[in-house]
Every structure is written in C-alpha cells, then in structure tokens.
Amino acid sequence: MDKSTFCKTVRIERTDDLTELLENICQDNNINNYFGTISVAVEGVLNFIFAASKKQSEKIKFGFEQCVGGVSISIECESVSFEALVKKTEQSEQTDNADALVIHLLSDKVRLLSDGRGIKLSFLIGGIEPELLSLRQELTLQYFNTLQVVKS
Fold first, then answer.
1. Where in the chain does DSSP place strands (E)?
2. From 77, 78, 109, 134, which residue has the greatest number of CB atoms within 10 Å?
3. CB proximity list for 14: less than 8 A, separation 6 or greater
4. Interatomic CA distance for residues 83 and 4, integer angstroms
5. CA–CA separation, 13 vs 6, rounded Å?
6. CA nearest 83: which of 112, 59, 54, 122?
7. pTM (whole model) above 0.85
8. Does the pLDDT value for residue 1 go beyond 50?
C-alpha cells in the first residue's frame, strides 16, 4: 500500500469507529499531530451517516490522500445525502447540528463527492488561513448563541 493514498470499502456498525485505521494512517504518514482533529471530524461524519440512515450498519467507501500542503479524507455512502450538511454551513448560516459545526470547524475544506453521496474533508498541515479562522470563530459563536436561546 502506498502510504500517501488509501481507499477501502467497509461495512461499519453504528457502534464502530475508525480510530485504529486513522491512527495507522496518521502514523504511516507522519501526521500524528493531526490525529485528534481528523478523528473527531470523521466521527462527526459517521454520526451524521447513522442519524440520516437510521440503520444499524452502513457500507461506506473510505479514502485517504496526502497531497501538497495537507491531507484529505473522503467518505462515501450510497444511502445518505451530504448536501444539506455541506451547503448550510458553507453559506455561514446558523446551524443547530453539532456534527456539521464540528466537521466545518476542524476541516479546512469540505466538499461534496459523488453527486452528494460523499464528502471530502481536507486538512492543511502547515497552518490555518486568517479568513478561515475568522469564519470558524463566527460559526462557534453562532452555535453557542443558539444553545443559549434554546435553554432560555
């Protein structure tokens, strides 16, 4: 297996996680410092898949790619549409979906794949752009303001 790319189709259960797979990928590609960020974002995608599908297990296509300046994780699932997850938060709209917020806060870029049946999360290894940092701060404040309104 080439360490810079990886693709595998797996059936995951609602209780499964991809921690061991992500640990191996991070270790093999010398990006251990990003394991936490990547694993939490991927967990958000898995939570989204199971919330949308209502099934106990799902077949997903999981991919990893190391490219210039960063890494990308792709997850495809035929029975789930990721369009609402990507577009709502992309447009800086307020979201009450914690998984969507976490995915967008931790990923530097989030894109749709396979006509909305997949999602690609990109993580920059060198640092964060100032505009993206401002957007992340704004989204976090919006989310917590929403929580305060709900509690009142």
1. 5-13, 57-67, 70-76, 109-113, 118-124
2. 77
3. 50, 55, 56, 57
4. 28
5. 21
6. 112
7. no
8. no
Q: How confident is the model at residue 45 (pLDDT cuts 50, 70, 90)?
A: very high
DSSP secondary structure string for all residues of 17-48: --HHHHHHHHHHTT-GGGHHHHHHHHHHHHHH
Residue span of the structural domain in which 78 resides: 5-151
pLDDT given for residue 89 in this prediction: 53
CB atoms within 10 A of CB 29: 17
Residue 30: which region, alpha, beta or left (left: phi > 0; alpha: psi -120 to 50)? left
- CA dist 96 and 59 (Å) reads 27
Our count of domains for the chain comes to 1
Question: 85 CB contacts (<8 Å, ≥6 apart)?
Answer: 48, 97, 99, 100, 103, 119
